Amino acid sequence: MIDRTAVRDTANYLRRVRPIDPEEITEYIEGTPHPAVVRETLREEAFDLRLREREDGCFVPVDDDPVRPPGWAPNAFPEEYAFALEDLLVAEFGANWHVGDSGDELRETIRRLKADYLYGNDVEYDRIAALGYAIYHLPGYYAAIGYVLDDLAENGLLDRTLRVLDIGAGVGGPALGLHDYLPEDAVVEYHAVEPSAAADVLDRLLEETGRNFRSSIHRTTAESLFGLNDSSKADATDDRAAVTADASPLEEPFDLVVFGNVLSELEDPVAVLEAAVDALAADGSLLALAPADRETAIGLREAERAVATPESGIEVYSPGIRLWSDASPSDRGWSFDVRGDLAVPPFQRRLDEAAAREATDEPGEFRNVDVQFAYSVLRTDGKRRVDVRASDDRCARMADSEDHVTDRVNLLAVKLSHDLSDGSNAVYRVGDGSQRVDHYLVCTRETVLNDGLRGADYGAVLFVENGLVLWNDDEGAYNVVVDDETVVDVVAP
């Protein structure tokens, strides 16, 4: 049994002097343990000691500066992860996994998964379903999380040592994206919660991560992890026993809790979200991702609004910040970001080309390279991506738009979509945190005084001066017309 206290004390002393070599530390520890034992002990203690392991096996202090945005804009899914996924496919079906019966089975599995998500059916992941899900969804979720992390990194809110809880980690898209987003000198203690066969795919893909990305997989449900089960007592007991045997990750708070496309699959997403918020460190962030389709994106927003109330102390950090501190929105909330497409990964291309040769399937049916996602970032320390508030003396509330129909008003608004038009007048969804129904800015004439609307990013805060409020009966929404009498300023990009 190695003396961990002695290892820690020695490491803390040497960190101020030179890189920490496990072979050197051996000489300071009673019993002269083998250097391999010392190295493993240092790895286990590295997060708390803020040490990272270099390629030469020595340990050095982690930089105190927070992570800065790395210019995340992937144009392809990384080869090492693609090869790892194909290793799994070859192991399961053989070298020609994409053709014959196995190809047909995977294509039918993907079709079924797409239909289940579209119609809100319960989804169960056996091994084949997990592989099909990875083929179709892994690249998009890999890309999406980096764009969301930018919201935190731009304000210096991502430390280089991160304790992460990934609820419903699935096959690992968010985990791999997080790993590649962070700098090489970051140290991550990553805990995945995944009860299904997807955990086997995740386990293989995590083998491709670096030595300072220390991962553990907890094969249990989120409800069992947080002790929320009230029914199926036997199953709950079994799950809790599995967590206990594996040492519950909830003993220490988390810097980042991630929900990647899982809220729509939970029986009580609000209860799980509330429990996850309680697991956050005081300066931690909860990040929830969902597909851009209507039902799951709106479901994400409904869960966000249920927990982030003016009384809860939970703040929406981004993207839909509340510009009125005493208000909460109650519109549909269908809002999502869109980023550049990825190149078609080889595993999608093979499966799709085989389908086109062997059947009458539409070409491209099994290619999924769009990066479109709904997301929410929550915090409990009151911080928001931009510190901007609306005031009654300068702005009209969107909640009061009924009183302003055919009037020109000033609005403070968050841009919550890209151009939704068919190519005529540009249309952008907006909100201010008070809206009860949908609001859109409709640009009928662009000028140098309002062209900031077109150029502003998703999540930007805009000041709209002299916009014309109209009711759109067909859409059941308010259109605020931006024309040559309107000025649009970007208050916060």
UniProtKB/TrEMBL annotation:
| Single GO biological process annotation from the record | methylation
Q: Which InterPro entries match?
A: DUF8157_C (IPR058959), DUF8157_N (IPR058470), Methyltransf_12 (IPR013217), SAM-dependent_MTases_sf (IPR029063)
Output the superkingdom of the source species: Archaea
Keywords carried by this UniProt record: Methyltransferase, Transferase
What are the DUF8157 domain coordinates in residue numbering? 4-55, 399-490
Q: Which Pfam families did the record assign?
A: DUF8157, DUF8157_C, Methyltransf_12
Which parts of the sequence belong to the Methyltransferase type domain?
Answer: 165-285
GO MF, one annotated term: methyltransferase activity
Q: Please identify the protein, giving its name as recorded.
A: Methyltransferase domain-containing protein
**Species assigned in the record:** Halorubrum aquaticum
